[in-house]
Amino acid sequence: MRTLILGFAAGAAWLQTQASLPLHAGALLWVIAGAALPMAWLLRRHARWRCVVALAAGVGLGFYWAAWLAQAALAPQLALADEGQDIVVTGTVASLPYRFEQGVRFNFSVEKALNAKVPPLIALSWYAGFRDEVTNEVGDVQPGERWRLTVRLQRPHGNANPMGFDYEAWLLEQGVRATGYVRPQPRADTPNVRLAAFVPAFGNVVEASRAVLRARILRSLEGKQYAGVIVALVVGDQRAIPQSDWQVFNRTGVSHLISISGLHITMIAGLFALGAGALWRRSFFTERQLPLLLPAQKVAALAGALAACVYVLLAGFGVPAQRTLYMLLVVALALWLGRITSIVHVLCLALGVVVLLDPWAVLWPGFWLSFGAVATMLYATAGRTTAPLPENASRWRRLRAAVALGAHTQYVVTVGLVPLTMLLFSQVSLVSPVANALAIPVISLVVTPLSLAGSLLPAPLSDALLLLAHAIVQMLAQVLDWLGARRFAVWTAPAPPMWSFCWALFGTAWLLAPRGWPHRWAGMLGWLPLLTALPSSPPPGQMWITAFDVGQGMAVLVETHGHRLLYDTGPAYSLDADGASRVIVPYLRARGIGKLDGVIISHSDLDHAGGAVSLLQNVDVGWLASSLFDGHPAVEARRVSHRPYLHCMAGQGWTWEGVHFAMLHPLPASHTDIALKPNARSCTVKITAGQHAILLAGDIEAAQEAQLLGRSADGDLAADVLLAPHHGSGTSSTPAFLAAVHPALAIFQVGHRNRYKHPKPQVYARYGDMGITRLRTDVTGAVVLEFGDHINVTQYRASRPRYWQGR
Fold first, then answer.
1. Whole-model pTM?
2. Which of 50, 242, 506, 677: CA 20 to 30 A from 254?
3. Which helix (H) or strand (E) holds 622?
4. Per-residue pLDDT reduced to its tens digit, 648-669
């Protein structure tokens, strides 16, 4: 059975790497299932071959089961012709709404749509101020309410970058098959209106309960810094926790605790089981002799299982919570039926149930970390004996034994997850053992029970408990902030290749081997390739260019043999999210790049400078050059840090390992000309490596293109690759400018279905008419160019195709 389950999980994971789904998945699933049973019976006396057949059958079943579910999940689809059209939909609010300064986001279960076929579940944003400045009052949406809304939708689409978050896969797992926004009142006969205060349904009851608990917590902790942490511990909603706090939690390795984790679920289930068992043994202090009717052990198992189910529902049913729930349910069932089972069987059954219900779970780090942690503890403890304490042992001795056991468990998990953590996050927290030794008992044994009690008990007791929980979190956060601020807090290295990861796993297994195993310390040698790897770089005289897919904005990384330059920092998505925090910083971390030698911000528009501040906060930057105005947050941050800052000016230039950089625009006088728009001052750079060059033109328009033509000699503007000026707007890319640059390839960094309609059709056609190859990042994903004897071009979506892309 264990071999079959492991094969099933491997098959489901294999399916998630496919570019397309197999045909007739349902039929093939039944064929494999039908063939596996007689094969297993025929080989019942041949254990080795039976394992091989079970593994092969498991892989086939997992692959085609996941394919069958994927086909069903992808079937509801918005027609291309309906994208961007006003559609009137009626349905219910199907999730816990997330309110932010600009509006609210929520999932919407569609019951009826007028003049369009709309998927049954869509994700909507309702903005307070609309893009065209039309007043749009946001409705007070609550879970379970029925609304009639006028919306504009599009198919699922996300930015596609190496080492980046796959938003399209996440939407597929959630069952969301279209995203969009609520329109302002477009017509008097179809207003956005609430039709019913609550629609009875199981999911609506769960989400409404979560909303009530969240509202109660936020009311009691109004204005408190860590109210979002308390909400996350009670209902699993982490969206109110700011990025600055997540940075501290990640650097100290305690982010797994800031949610309804498996540890918390086990604790709550254990408390309810103990309480129910104790009361049942005492027959609730009556004379009924209830244990004679049903053993107290079975009652305790049932109470613990029910408590775990309720808590996991409040958590939003995340993978770590699912894993813990299924393990607890298997244990409870074994106790109820009087069957003895091993923890290995429990873990395998939990793995099988998780993948059976959610084959996309294998795509996320939480899945691997959850099962990896339990598997590591099993490996390091299974079959090993310790001397039992005598019955008359003192409390102090028992306490020391408990502390020693907890310390050993923390050591095992920390050491055992090092290879996996480096593979998934390219960093490992060196202060994690200390931080977790403090945070685990505080969060699990003190803060979580206080938070749960405070959210359920009546006022004013609830207010006092929630304030106490918040005060403890605040004190803990101060300690974690101090630990995370240490220079040695985090060890970073590039994401390892598979051979390095496997070698590190072997070293970890050696290190955690039982006592008596020879030279266990030598296992740490297996980590050396993992922890000491250096970022890759091009040979001298060559360069790599990465044009990120940041949506409607620009961000280009330029790498030479020994230096790295970032041109623009991407757009601002919201008050706490931007192109740097969502795309650039994770990419640099995964590559093991801890420093940028230089950053050029072409101008102050938010689609180019929106990520500047978060980039400077998270990455060591040597110098900053820009055309930003005095007082811009990025400029002020540089001046406060006393790091080099200068204005872009034509005539500037430098050379890194044989690669020459030349600043072509703006002229020095433009920085004092207040009449100029920011676009007109865009820093324009030509980079030449050997016989090939790229021109980064920012948002210059026709007037600036004419200026460049007027003061440049023949061939000065020539480049093999052109970053299309102003994203291909109608005010740029004049025929004369394109003729002077004469590129073979043009890259348009644009957002999917962006409101500016960039690139303009006539401009895009102009490039094509001139024989220029055109790449759009909203279609190709990130574009990587390797400049050597030739220019090698890699399109991310084409190099890593997945069956859900563009669906």
1. 0.91
2. 506
3. strand 620-626
4. 999 999 999 999 999 999 999 9
